[in-house]
Amino acid sequence: MTLFARHDTALRSLETRGRYRQLIPRAGHDFASNDYLGLAESDVLQAAARSALDRGVPVGAGGSRLLRGNHDEHCLLEQEAATFFDTEAALFVGGGFVANTAIFSTLPAQGDLVLYDALIHASTHDGMRLGRADTMAFAHNDVTDAAERIRLWREAGNTGQIWLACESLYSMDGDLAPIDDLATLAAETDAVLVVDEAHATGVFGDLGRGVSHSYANRENTLTLHTCGKGLGVSGALICGAQVLIDTLINRARGFVFATAPSPLNAALVRAALTELRTNPARQQRAQALMAHAHAQAERHGGLIGFQSQIMPVIVGKDKPTMALAAHMQGLGYDIRGIRPPTVPRNTARLRISITLNTSADVVTQMMHDLSLAMKEHSQ
Question: Strands, E, within 16-105: which ranges?
Fold first, then answer.
C-alpha cells in the first residue's frame, strides 16, 4: 500500500487522536437522527410513495431540470412551498449542502460582503470559497458585533450589497438565533438576511414554517428549508424573491449541471408539507417531547440551558467522548459523539437529538442512564 501511504498515515493519526470516523449501522433508540417529526418511516410518507408510484410519478428524473429532468412534481412542489413559506418563489434542489453552495457562490457578487455567524454550516463556507464576494464572520449570535463589522466595512469605502447569513437553529449547539434582532439589523443596513432553517423546519414557527417565518415575505429575506430533517425526505427548498430564484436557475452551477432530484422525492416532500399544514398535532407532540427531555436532563443530570430538540452534552476531549457514546450505545441508545473539526477543539460532545421516534418513557430512562454513565466516566 505504498501508493497511498500518506493517506493511510493520516487515517492512523486520526485513529490515535480519537477522531477516526466510520459508518455505524443504526441500532437502538433513536437519539441521533434529524428525523425530528418521525416522518421518515411514517405511514404518511409510505402511503404518499405508493400513491405517487400508482399515478405514474417516475423514480428518476433522467436529466437536469433545464433539460428533460423538469417534472410536474418539481413545479407543483415549488408552487406549494412558496405558498406555505409565504415567499414569492421557491427552488427545489438536491440537498441543503447543494443549496448553500449554490446560494453563496452565485448570489453575492464581487464587491459584496457575506457577513456570517461564526458557527454557520460548512456548506456555507464552501459556497463562499467558490464565490467572489468579501467574507467576514461575526461572533456567534452577537448582533452588536455584526452591526459593528458592517459599520467598519462601510467606513472603509465599500458600497456593495451585504448578505447577512445565519442559521435559525444551530445543529451542534442547539441554540436559536436572535432572528428578530438580525432582521432589524438587515432592514436598517439594507442587507439581505439569509436564514438556514434546516433544523427548525417542521419544529419551530407557525405550522413548522421556521423561526424566521414572520420575515419570509420580505424582499430582503432568503430562507432555506432542507427536506431531509423535520420533513423526513431529502432535498432542499430555497425560498425568496423571484429574481433571486431565477438567478439561481440561470447561474448556480450546482443546479444547472446536476441531475434533477427524483420526481418521486418531490412528491414525498409535497406530502410532508401537507402533513405540516393539516396536522399541527405532530409539531405539538415534538414540542412537548422536547420540553420533557429538557426537564429530565435537569432532573437527572443537572443539565440546563437547552433551547431546542438538539441537546449537546459537552465532554471536552475526543476519546472520552467516544467512550461515553459507546457506553450509551451499549445500553441501547443510538447516541453519537461529535468531534473536531465539526465542533471547536476541546468541545467534543454527545449530540442528543429528540425525535418522535422515541417515547417520553424512553427519554426519561435514557437521561437517568446518561447521568449514571457520566458519573462513572468522570471517575
Answer: 29-30, 89-93
What string of DSSP letters covers 162-174?
A: EEEEEESB-TTT-
Q: What span, in angstroms and rounded, lies between the C-alpha atoms of 209 and 216?
A: 9
CA geometry: angle 235, 236, 241, nearest 5 deg: 150
Task: Tell me the per-residue pLDDT of 370-379, one tens digit each, with 9 for 90 and over.
Answer: 999 998 877 6
Does the pTM of the predicted model rise above 0.85? yes
Kindly report the CA angle at 40 between 294 and 285, in degrees rounded to 5? Answer: 35
Strands of the sheet with 336-338, listed across from one edge? 310-316, 348-353, 336-338
Distance CA 182, CA 104 (A): 18
Tracing cell 405517487 back to the chain, one arrives at 52
- Cell numbers 433544523 correspond to what residue? 199
| Cis amide leading into 312 (omega within 30) | no
Contact 276, 202 (CB under 8 A): yes
Beta-strand relationship, 221-226 and 162-167:
unpaired
Are the CB atoms for 314 and 347 separated by under 8 Å?
A: yes
| Single-letter code of the amino acid located at 125 | H
What DSSP state is assigned to residue 64?
B
How far apart (Å, rounded) are the C-alpha atoms in residues 228 and 288? 22
- Taking each helix axis from N to C end, the angle separating 242-251 and 96-106, rounded to the nearest 10 degrees, works out to 100
Q: In the chain, count of helices (H) and strands (E)?
A: 13, 12
Q: Which long-range contacts (CB under 8 A, 24 or more apart) does 277-284 make?
A: 277/84, 277/207, 280/207, 282/37, 282/38, 282/39, 282/356, 283/37, 283/202, 283/203, 283/207, 283/208
> What pLDDT sits at residue 25?
83
pLDDT-flagged residues of the chain (< 70): 1, 379
Question: Vertex 174, ends 173 and 179: CA angle to 5°?
Answer: 110
The DSSP symbol for 108 reads: S
CA dist 270 and 77 (Å) reads 6
Q: pLDDT (tens digit, 9 = 90+) per residue, 31-74?
A: 999 999 999 999 999 999 999 999 999 999 999 999 999 999 99
**E strands along 208-325, which residues?**
221-226, 236-240, 310-316
